[in-house]
Structure formats: C-alpha cells, structure tokens
C-alpha cells in the first residue's frame, strides 16, 4: 500500500492489554504531540497476543477482550486505532523491517512514540537507540515517552494480573483506572442459591482467555441488558465447595432484584473482595454467612 493518500500521523505501538493508566498516559502524550503538529494520532495494536503466535502453547490471561480493548482505546480520544493481524510472517520481521514496511509504507507514521520499556521486532532484541537510528534513516522521528509512576507505583498489565490472581481487585482497579469486569451471557446454573433465598445469575464469560480473579466472594456492580443503571451484587467465583462442586462458576446474587434474565447479556464489575471461598459444614452456616456477605457488599458499594 502506498502512503500518498494517507496523511502523516503520530503513533504508538503495543498490545495495550487492559488499557490501564500507564497506557492512557502514553496515549495522552501521543495526542498532545499530534495536536501540536497538526497531525492525527494513532494507536497500532494487535488482535492476537504476539506470544500466542510464536509460542503456540501459550494461553494468555487477558485483562481486556479484543472488543473491550477497542472500546477502551476509543474512550481515550485517540483519532485512529489500527489492529494488525500478527502472524508468523510479521513475527519474523526485524524492528527495522517492521518500521519500514508497516509503520512507514503502510501507515505513514511521521513520529513514533515508544512507551517506556516497550520493545518490538523479531525476538524483541533491539533497544530504543536502535529504533531511533532506524527512524532517522527512513524519516520517522522516534521519541521515548516518559515513565508514568504516580507515587512511585509501578503500573503494568503484569502487575494488574498479579493483583487480580491474588484477589486484590481494589488495587487492580486503582492501576486500571476503572473497575475490572467480566462480560457474557446469563445461563442456567445449579439453583442452590435460589433454594436458600439468594437466587444467582450464572455468567458464561464471553471469552475463555479473559482472566478470572482469585476464587472468592466479591462486592460487584452488575450491568444487565435492558436495565439503564448498574445494580448492586455479590459475586462468587469458585467451585461451590459446600456442594462438592466441580469446575469454576461465576454466580452473582443481584441485590433487590428478582427478574428472569436467562439468556441476557450481563457484565459484572468487581469493587472489592469480601472473603475467600469456604466449605461450610451445613447449608445453614452458608446461608448465615451469605447474609453477612450481602451486608458487606452493600457497605462496600455504597462507600465507593
């Protein structure tokens, strides 16, 4: 593709999983540079995690599905998002080849903003100085964005994943800049909650690669298809040990709500973890604990 009809742009490149506060800081920097030079701003990203292509056994734990990522990127105010199809041919390109063939010839990037500690190209083996030198040779001005570390906090997708895998959703949300969520459809469950007076909506997550927070009980905000405002909820992620369950389920008791929502789209946003999942000796013990969980969920949500 020739760039004659494509206006020059200021761009950045990355996978941008979760589009967290660090990503947003970088994208804001790109937008400011583009505005100052009268150019459009662009994010260049990938539909598939590059590691999946070069290491076929790798299964990512995504903070955002491809659809969620595009929505989050749009919300940053970036002018354009280019989603590249990362395949073995692209994986084999050196950084210089990628810059020449994709960024220069295909996308007409005039200025490339490299995120702090970000690398690209075959085996990610080159440095910022290499990118800058390649850029000079082909007419791309390469700059490195300053690191974003408010109060000394390290913000990365890996750090957020670790928080979620250990149940620290409040800390994860602080780095994301929004409440981490899971979306999908409501499907029939085991009906055990209903028998105890706590009917639950069983969520089938839309993308199996989406990361599940650590098993436990959480205060959540619930968006249900057809309802304008989020509803208060308490969500259990786990295998229902009191009932000797097998396999992980995501079950949400929506507070003060009784409608039939089977088959509808639902999104559960995590506010804070209430407790770990526990195997109770009797159903009555579990029921009493769930009443405590409901009160805790109400308090946590009302205090946010």
From TrEMBL:
Gene Ontology biological-process annotations: FAD biosynthetic process; FMN biosynthetic process; riboflavin biosynthetic process
Pathway assigned to this chain's UniProt record: Cofactor biosynthesis; FAD biosynthesis; FAD from FMN: step 1/1; Cofactor biosynthesis; FMN biosynthesis; FMN from riboflavin (ATP route): step 1/1
EC number: 2.7.1.26, 2.7.7.2
Riboflavin kinase domain: residues covered: 175-302
Keyword Manganese appears in the UniProt entry: no
Any one GO molecular function term: FMN adenylyltransferase activity
Cell cycle is among the record's keywords: no
InterPro entries: FAD_synthase (IPR015864), Riboflavin_kinase (IPR023468), Riboflavin_kinase_bac (IPR002606), Riboflavin_kinase_bac/euk (IPR015865), Riboflavin_kinase_dom_sf (IPR023465), Rossmann-like_a/b/a_fold (IPR014729)
Catalytic activity annotation: riboflavin + ATP = FMN + ADP + H(+); FMN + ATP + H(+) = FAD + diphosphate
Xref: SUPFAM superfamilies: Nucleotidylyl transferase, Riboflavin kinase-like
Keyword annotations of the record: ATP-binding, FAD, Flavoprotein, FMN, Kinase, Multifunctional enzyme, Nucleotide-binding, Nucleotidyltransferase, Transferase
Described purpose of this protein according to its UniProt entry: Catalyzes the phosphorylation of riboflavin to FMN followed by the adenylation of FMN to FAD.
Similarity field: Belongs to the ribF family.
Protein name: Riboflavin biosynthesis protein
Species the sequence originates in: Hoylesella loescheii DSM 19665 = JCM 12249 = ATCC 15930
